[in-house]
Specification:
The complex is a heterotrimer. Chain A has a domain of 156 residues: P-loop containing nucleotide triphosphate hydrolases (Rossmann fold), CATH 3.40.50.300. The radius of gyration of chain A is 18 Å and the shape is globular. By secondary structure, chain A is of the alpha/beta class. Chain A has a six-stranded mixed sheet, with helices on both faces. Chain A has a four-stranded antiparallel sheet with strand order 2-1-4-5, with helices on one face. In chain A, strand 9 and strand 10 form a beta hairpin. Chain B is mostly helical. Chain B has one domain: MetI-like fold (Orthogonal Bundle). Chain C has a single domain, classed as Orthogonal Bundle (MetI-like fold), CATH 1.10.3720. In chain C, helix 4 crosses helix 10, helix 6 packs across helix 7 and helix 9 runs parallel beside helix 10. Classes of the chains: A alpha/beta, B mainly alpha, C mainly alpha.
Chain lengths: 258, 271, 255
């Protein structure tokens, strides 16, 4: 479904800064792929380029075979900062309806999405009246209401507390089960990337390169307690942690991996 | 790159000034003078004095300095009074409820309307002007300071209590710094108000000062003098505002990080 | 309700002290008549004196016209000029120089060009009132979170649709603050022109005339009270309207 090839981005300016250096990977339809990497490694830039919000200085992004030019049609993004991403002058329902085309089923689709995230009762409330976790759920509902073929998420659960994070992670998994959505999720949390993902892509520090592309052999049924305690999880977790720790020498990594 | 940056900010202003110069010279009107001529005249008017007087002419000592003196005198009195009263007011919810509306009334009263009254109550000249400036600005400072003082969050109060910080420490090291952004906002607004009131009070009830000179020039049809005075006032307003902003930035340097940890509007393009 | 009543304590206390001071002879009754003289006079002027009423209406009308015109100019201009960052930078630099100039400094110039009539009043007040609205509108767009535009783009919104559905609601509370600031400036300028130029009728002219010659201070003070009330009602009214319309916006007073 999504194909990224030779993607690179360099910031010109006072100092030339290579953020991303020759990145390539594919995402199959229906997969939940997590991208994990150290802070400041360019993960958000990568996501913005995949979303078509930013043009890469080299390489291409193709959605279902067609190279993207600007923001493609059926794509939705969930950003990290729920507080900033909901419009304070609109109600919860207004925010969820926002991206939908005017039409008879606009309200209905918004309410359906809100029900999926468990916030149908809050439809008339305003963002400042909701907790952080609830606001982020509204942001997710807004993305879902557009019925995207590709859902991009930029550290969506980083700003909420641990309890809420677990709830939101499970919500994401259940929603995905229902719709079979294709999801690309960026995170700095190793545990989260393994818990959620079918695949984990590990990035190095800037200039970001693909350090590893790992399958997550934990099956489709995930449970916060059982899965996180399982052997497979722990092994994979230490492997990714070691890869991240080694960090800034992607060259060296590839050498030893071979 | 740097040149582009500079032009991006100042280009429009420079272009407008040039357009003014060209169009004024072409029009040749006696009312509408080109900036070049105005600056030359201003130089002659104020900066061609003897060396002992710092090259400033008598006009400066007769008009500009007294104006500045009244401006700063009035504003400083108002600032000190306003901050002290405002701090006390802001910490007392009762007092704010009882006296807030009254203070708001005096703040929103157009102070120039009081000038005839002040002319009768105070001696013409500097006392009347100081009264006008102080009365017209103190309420702004009080209300802004009170707003700031009232918004010290309870966590800080509990922290102070837990560490047994005495009243002096409480006021000077917690309330004052916490209120300082709003205090500075009030001071900036009151400074521009003070400038307006200085000009108005000099136009009406004085025989010296920049405001007086503007009216005099108008009556004598001395347009060069008039424009020079206007430009000086514009410059004064600009410098005063920026000077206060600079002071604010130094005084509140600790605050920028705390208040806007990631103000995205200021962030440059970044991963 | 109780809150509003408590707010009356201040004015009542002031009036009581004032009256007492006059009664005790601490204040010269001629120069500063007590409230028992001033307040009835004010009421009499407002209800029975048609000239004064005309003056008050003249001042109010001039103020409204000036505010209206300046809003009509400054809001669209601010939205247009503020929509792109390079334009904002350039224009805000220019505004930074023009804004601190007290509009009243231009009064002598305007009097030479336009005379002493109502045109001068309206023009100068409009000029003065344009800047706060313009500045606030542009500032609102400048500090708008770029995330908003990213969001709109990610949902496929074009520039125009983004401007109307995102930029405009975001800027609206700032514009409201700008209008409130402009309103007090416009009122001040109108009163100043009436005081100094005197060629157009208004409350300022009334006060000026009352204070000259023998000086009817009760009229002067009554007129001042009326002007003060005007200013207070306008300011509070606009503040209240902003709170009602934009309760969701934090109060950000950028002047």
């Amino acid at each position: 479904m999504l194909e990224v090839a030779g993607l690179g981005h360099t910031y010109e300016g006072e100092q030339r800064h290579v953020a991303i250096n020759e990145l390539g990977f594919t995402v199959e339809s229906g997969q939940l792929t997590c991208i994990v990497g150290p802070s400041g490694c360019g993960k958000s830039t990568l996501l913005r380029m995949v979303a078509g919000l930013q043009r890469p200085t080299s390489g291409r992004v193709a959605l279902r075979g067609a190279e993207i030019d600007g923001v493609p049609e059926d794509l939705a993004v969930v950003f990290q900062d729920y507080g900033r991403s909901l419009f304070p002058w609109m109600s919860v329902r207004g925010n969820v309806e926002f991206p939908l085309r005017r039409g008879a089923d606009r309200r209905q689709r918004a309410m359906e999405a809100l029900e999926q995230v468990g916030l149908a009762d809050a439809a008339k409330k305003y963002p400042w009246q909701l907790s952080g976790g609830m606001q982020q759920r509204v942001a997710i509902a807004r993305a879902l209401a557009t019925r995207p073929s590709l859902l991009l998420m930029d550290e969506p659960f980083a700003s909420v507390d641990a309890q809420t994070r677990f709830e939101l992670e499970d919500l994401l998994l259940s929603v995905r089960r229902q719709h079979g959505s294709t999801i690309l999720l960026v995170t700095h949390d190793i545990d989260e990337s393994i818990y959620l993902g079918d695949r984990v892509l590990v990035l190095s520090k800037a200039p970001a390169e693909l350090v590893a592309d790992l399958e997550v052999p934990l099956g489709a049924e995930r449970d916060q307690i059982a899965t996180r305690a399982s052997e497979g999880f722990i092994t994979l977790r230490s492997h990714v942690a070691r890869l991240l720790n080694a960090g800034a020498e992607p060259e060296a990594q590839r050498a030893t991996a071979r | 790159m740097r040149v582009r940056n500079f032009l991006g900010r100042w280009g429009l202003l420079i272009a407008l000034v040039l357009a003014w110069e060209v169009s004024a010279r072409l029009a040749g009107s006696v009312f509408f003078l080109p900036p070049g001529e105005i600056l030359v005249h201003a130089w002659q008017l104020w900066l061609t004095g003897p060396a002992e007087q710092l090259w400033l002419t008598d006009a400066v000592y007769a008009d500009v300095l007294p104006s500045l003196g009244r401006l700063f005198g009035g504003w400083l009195i108002s600032a000190v009074l306003g901050v002290l009263i405002g701090l006390a007011l802001g910490r007392s919810r009762r007092a704010t409820e009882y006296f807030g509306p009254l203070l708001d009334f005096f703040r929103s009263l157009p102070t120039p309307a009081l000038v005839p009254l002040f002319m009768v109550l105070f001696a013409l000249g500097t006392p009347m002007q100081l009264a006008t400036i102080v009365f017209g600005t103190v309420f702004t400072v009080v209300l802004n300071t009170a707003d700031g003082a009232g918004s010290v969050d309870p966590v800080k109060r509990h922290t102070a209590q837990a560490f047994r910080i005495g009243p002096w420490g409480w006021w000077t090291r917690i309330v004052l710094p916490a209120a300082s952004p709003k205090i500075f906002a009030g001071l900036r607004v009151s400074l521009s108000q003070a400038l307006i009131l200085m000009v108005v009070s000099e136009m009406v009830g004085s025989s010296s000062g920049l405001g007086y000179r503007l009216v005099y020039a108008q009556q004598q049809f001395e347009f060069a003098d008039l424009w020079a005075g206007i430009v000086l006032l514009a410059l004064l307003g600009y410098l005063l505002n920026n000077a206060l902003l600079a002071v604010q930035r130094r005084a509140l340097s600790w605050q920028r990080g705390a208040e806007n940890p990631e103000n995205p509007a200021r962030a440059k393009g970044r991963a | 309700m109780a809150r509003a009543l408590r707010g009356l304590v201040g004015p009542l206390a002031l009036l009581a002290v004032w009256e007492l001071a006059a009664a005790l002879g601490l204040l010269d009754r001629h120069y500063l008549p007590p409230p028992s003289v001033v307040l009835p006079r004010a009421i009499q002027l407002l209800t029975a004196d048609s000239d004064f009423l005309l003056d008050t209406i003249a001042t109010l009308l001039t103020f409204l016209i000036a505010l209206g015109i300046s809003a009509l100019i400054a809001i669209p201009l601010g939205l247009l000029l503020g929509s792109a960052r390079p334009a904002r930078r350039a224009v805000l630099t220019v505004v930074e120089f023009l804004r601190p100039l007290p509009a009243v400094a231009l009064l002598p110039l305007f009097m030479v060009l336009l005379g002493s009539g109502p045109e001068t009043k309206i023009t100068l007040a409009t000029y003065a009132a344009v800047w706060p609205i313009l500045f606030n509108t542009m500032y609102a767009l400048d500090e708008m979170d770029p995330l908003y535009t990213d969001l709109a783009r990610s949902f496929g919104f074009g520039r125009v649709r983004t401007a109307f559905t995102v930029a405009l609601p975001h800027a609206a509370p700032f514009v409201a603050t700008g209008i409130r600031v402009s309103a007090s400036i416009a009122l001040v300028v109108v009163v100043v022109v009436e005081l100094i130029a005197g060629g157009a009728r208004g409350v300022g002219t009334f006060i000026l005339e009352a204070s000259s010659g023998a000086g009817r201070m009760d009229l002067v003070l009554a007129g001042t009270v009326v002007v003060g009330l005007l200013g207070y009602l306008i300011n509070s009214g606009l503040g209240l309207a902003r709170r009602k319309a934009f309760g969701w916006a934090e109060s950000r007073e950028e002047l």
